[in-house]
Here is the input.
Amino acid sequence: MPVLNRYLPMLNELNKSGPGQTMVRILLGFFLILAGTGHLTFSRTAFAAQVPPWLPLNPDLIVVLSGIVEILLGASLVLLVKKRIQLGWVVAAFFVLVFPGNIAQLVEHRNAFGLDSDLKRRIRLPFQFVLIFLALWSTGAWQKWRNE
Here is the structure.
C-alpha cells in the first residue's frame, strides 16, 4: 500500500487537464453540437455534398446519422469529463472517418460551405488534421498514451 500511495498523486496529475485543454474540449464539444444540428436542419443539403457517392446508403440518411453522432459526441465532450480520454480517441476516429467526405467534395468538385473552387477545397483538407489533434490534445488522450 505505501508504494501505491506514493504513485497516486502522479496518476491524479496525469488525469488532470489544464484550463486551456478544458476550454478547447468544451469549445470542440459545442462545435460538434452546432455541426450536428446543422446536419439535421439548416445545412443538411450542404453536408449531403460531402457524402461520397460510393457509400451504399442514401446520402440524406448518412447526413442525419452523422449529425446525431456529432451531437452525441459534442455533448459527451462537454458533460462526461471523467470519460474525456476515451472520448478523445472516439472523436478523433470520427474525424478520420468523415475525412473521405472532404476528399470526395474536392475530387467531385462539389460546392458547399463556400468551398466553390478546388483551391478552397484543398485548403480545407488540412483542417481535418487540426480537428483530430484538438480532439486528442484537449481530452488528454494523447498525453496519456505518450505516458504509458
Summary: The longest helix spans residues 84-107. Residues 15-142 form one domain.
